[in-house]
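Most newcomers find our protein records easier to grasp once they have seen one. A learned vocabulary of local backbone shapes supplies the integers on the structure line. Here is such a record, shown just as it appears in the course material:
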Amino acid sequence: MRPRVLMIALGLAATLLTVLGRAQDVHVRVSPDVKTGIEAISEFPTIQMAMDHHPFAGVGKDGKPGRVYIEIAPGIYHERVIVTQNHTNIALIGMGKSPADVVITNSLNAKQAGGTFFTETVEINGDGFEGDNITFENTAGNTGQAVAAAVRADRAIFKHCRFLGHQDTLFADHGRQYYLDSYIEGGVDFIFGNATAVFDHSEIHANGRGYLTAQSRTSPEQTTGYVILNSKVTSGIEAADPTQDTISLGRPWRPFSRVVYINTEMPADVIAQGWNLWGRTGETPQAYYAEFHSTGPGANPSARAPWS
């Protein structure tokens, strides 16, 4: 390339980067069809590559920071994705017709990874995160702790998303989190952690005998807890004995665990007492567990644990 042409090309590239850097929002595309490498600035073949190399959003005239929209084409993405703390206001947007069209998947359990908190398929640490129309999946199955998504971000929002796993599917652990019109599936303690989280118009699906929640509030001063609102609990368990109760609404991973179900439909195989104390005996329960206007065959307020 001639020197003058090279200078023009570099100048255009610098101008483009400057415009992108100053723009309030940035849009990048992820697709298995993209063949460019790390030199790309707007199209990437993997989600993690987009996270690592996208331009940062600028600040608008109103002084508010922009967002980075990572628009993901339909496909199954066999990768682990990490949204670091310095990557704030990231939005992962599935471009399919449903969450099943964009799947981020991996298969690691605690034994393989060296601990529960190394197993997550997607780890989200940057505040202001948004996930829309995506499936987060850990396919390790009934092999122990295996996290599909670990969310340690404040002001995290998930809309029309699916979280698939068995034990410890969704680690909702820090900050304020909101899940709307979403689907969370698992068997044991599959929504756990110490976030302030609301699950609104969502489906909590048990695929094995166990506990729906294991919230981990550690002191009565903390404002954390889970609220399941206008939602439904469903079950895909095939019990050998149809009279055997199989599902608990929650148990306290930490002593001051707090979970409330409001206007939520319960299936028949929710245990009559509703809640479990995780083997804690000889002490006054410190967990706060409650229901309001539960419906369905599993709604049995008169039989619930007397301390709830």
